[in-house]
Amino acid sequence: MIIDIHCHYTTEPAALHQFRDKQLAGLADAARAPTARGLADLNISDETLIQSVQPQLKLQRERGSNLTIFSPRAAGMAHHVGSAEVSRQWTTISNDLIHRLTALLPENFIGVGQLPQFPGVSPKECIAELERIVLELGFVGVNLNPDPSGGWWSGPPLIDRYWYPLYEKLVELQVPAMIHVSSSCNPNFHHTGAHYINADTTAFMQLIQGDLFKDFPDLKFVIPHGGGAVPFHWGRYRGMCLAMQRRPLAEHLLNNVFFDTCVYHLPGIRLMTEVVPITNILFASEMLGAVPGIDPENGHAFDDTKRYIDQLRDLDDASRHLIFEGNARRVYPRLDALLKRRGH
């Protein structure tokens, strides 16, 4: 089985965008706020939902993947916009939409949710939604924004006890968190080209600086987009880890931190497999995400990351199995349990 652990719903129905436009307009003028209270009020039919993901289903068939871990559009989370209540309402509707898709197409999609984060609001306020999406909706993971301020990094780092109540619940529920920022309101940082990669790198360095996993030995983080700059500077981080009198990097972080393969060229994927342990790499494409175009140098889609892995001649079958399936089932235990119930 080939499991793609990182894809976002980027082909949402127009009704969802119309709701969001009204929600944001309502921040300036309450009379323009939407009257809808939840997803059911948007009148999105099952047929509309299924039609909306035909591009993803087509790519699954063409590229040979079997199952997609699907979450709301990352840039659309926009935790810095509006108020805590706006974030809560938007999060609920977005997660409910993902749930409906996973119920309609359970063999193709498994849900991962966003959290109702807002700058300055304790992560404890996210616990109720985390419990709902895992225990009621059957989601297997969650996206955690380390910078809900949208590019200003105004909150505490991930190693701060500020985050601990949320971590405790993640461990209790056996749910990993993908460390994923959203859109950037800082004009210095393009959201997908800079802010995302900055955040991946920043999160890894924050984790080096603390001893979070001594307190939470079962907590699991996935750092997307290949880990940002981390694999290319692996020696730097190994050295800094030792200079800070931490344990060697592998002992310090790699029982708990994993990377995906959203790296859009063969040399980058090759580098990952040469410096990062294979047990820490999970297959992902982020298809129809940040870079959906065709590479003019080879005529193939940039985000067809399976092609790059298939071209790595030094990978044995056991390593390919770990990247494509085994690591995902270990990092996402609720996914593994679900697949076992289905006979896999």
Q: How many strands?
A: 8
Radius of gyration (Å): 19 Å
- How many discrete structural domains? 1
Sheet with the most strands: spatial strand order: 1-2-3-4-5-6-7-8
| Unreliable spans | none
Mean pLDDT: 96
- The count of helical stretches stands at 15
Fourth-tier CATH superfamily name: Metal-dependent hydrolases
- Under CATH, the topology can be stated as TIM Barrel
Looking at the structure, what is the overall shape?
globular
Describe it for me?
The protein is of the alpha/beta class and 344 residues long. The protein has a single domain, classed as TIM Barrel (Alpha-Beta Barrel), CATH 3.20.20. It is built from 15 helices and eight strands. It has an eight-stranded parallel β-sheet with strand order 1-2-3-4-5-6-7-8. The protein is globular. It starts with a strand and ends with a helix. The relative contact order is 0.12. The model has no long low-confidence stretch (mean pLDDT 96).
